[in-house]
Amino acid sequence: MDVHVDITCRDVSQTVKVRKGVGFQALSAKYKSGIEYDCRASDCGICAIKILSGHECLSAKTPAEADFLKAMGADDDERLACQTRILGDVKILIDYL
Ligand code: FES
């Protein structure tokens, strides 16, 4: 089953279709998403994204992701793309800091 991800970066939006359950890293490998990655292990925060809608359509935060987001003072609508799987239609904002 495919799901849709609406990505907005610097006022430019694109909607991409991915298989349910893939991670944002797989999405980024297939499309030019604009999401940047470094550690891929909840240690750097460069992959932070803001979820505009569809929070319930993402995998639950791992303890490491939750700890890191709390330490960086992230809002509830922020996630680490490197740790998040897409389970349904979502809208995200990147490059918002
Ligand atoms: S790439 Fe470092 S926290 Fe996601």
What would you note in describing this structure?
By secondary structure, this protein is an alpha+beta fold. The protein has a single domain, classed as Ubiquitin-like (UB roll), CATH 3.10.20.30. 16% of the residues lie in helices and 31% in strands. It is built from 2 helices and 5 strands; from the N terminus they run E-E-H-E-H-E-E. It has a 5-stranded mixed beta sheet, with no helix packed on it. The radius of gyration is 12 Å and the shape is globular. The relative contact order is 0.30. The model has no long low-confidence stretch (mean pLDDT 94).
Q: In terms of structural class, how would the helical and strand content be classed?
A: alpha+beta
**Sheet with the most strands?**
5 strands, mixed
Estimated share of beta-strand residues: 25-35%
Which CATH class is shown? Alpha Beta
Number of helical elements: 2
Radius of gyration from CA coordinates: 12 Å
* The CATH homologous superfamily: Beta-grasp domain
Query: Which stretches of 5+ consecutive residues score pLDDT under 50?
Result: none
CATH architecture assignment name:
Roll
Order of helices and strands: EEHEHEE
Helical amount:
10-25%
